[in-house]
């Protein structure tokens, strides 16, 4: 079995695959100890290969790699920046500065479509990336996602105070808010949807015919705008498989 890890700043997304690359189980944990416990429940003794992508510091990555090697006694492959991967050319002037999660996601999207793609990741931050028919990454944008927008308003504006539970109850509508919570949640949603609409318009100018990929936890909040879009939760993992193939497969 293959253990795949996507290590963000605060959470670790993981999943276990069979040798044939079919998904068996997945989850999200906060730390390495919790990760080992979760995997042990399903497949600890049968892990033959580990691959991971991380946005954490080199020291943190090295510590996790040592822990995984000790736990499973297997090779741990770590994705690293690249100028070219699977037919895609990194578009950053300093290719090592492009976030690895963004890089792997856009590579996976291009690999699936074999033509121009726009990849929009809607998480804590929102990113968009443009890849041409020739596989050339044309660059992208980064802006605050819904969690950052609402956090900044609630933190820095004295009279904007409401709880997470109230916020959850008023999300989903795009009608004008009749309470502070509604006004904030729906206002932020309109900003996100406006950003996405602008990205699609710009992609039409830059790329011509293209496919749209949506990923990230808030992708569902904009998917109704783009019925042609492919909503893919596993883009980063798909790119990770290209960057760190299992030679035993």
Automatic annotation (TrEMBL):
Entry annotation: catalytic residues: 101 (proton acceptor)
Coarse class of the protein's main subcellular location: cytoplasm
Reaction it catalyzes: (R)-pantothenate + ATP = (R)-4'-phosphopantothenate + ADP + H(+)
Molecular function as annotated in GO: ATP binding; metal ion binding; pantothenate kinase activity
Protein's cellular compartments: Cytoplasm
GO cellular component, one term: cytoplasm
Binding site for substrate: 92, 99-102, 180
Keywords associated with the record: ATP-binding, Coenzyme A biosynthesis, Cytoplasm, Kinase, Metal-binding, Nucleotide-binding, Potassium, Transferase
Enzymatic class: transferase
A GO biological process held by the record: coenzyme A biosynthetic process
Record HAMAP family: Pantothen_kinase_3
Family: Belongs to the type III pantothenate kinase family.
NCBIfam families (alphabetical): baf (TIGR00671)
Purpose of the protein: Catalyzes the phosphorylation of pantothenate (Pan), the first step in CoA biosynthesis.
Protein name according to UniProt: Type III pantothenate kinase
Species assigned in the record: Pseudomonas fluvialis
Lineage: Bacteria, Pseudomonadati, Pseudomonadota, Gammaproteobacteria, Pseudomonadales
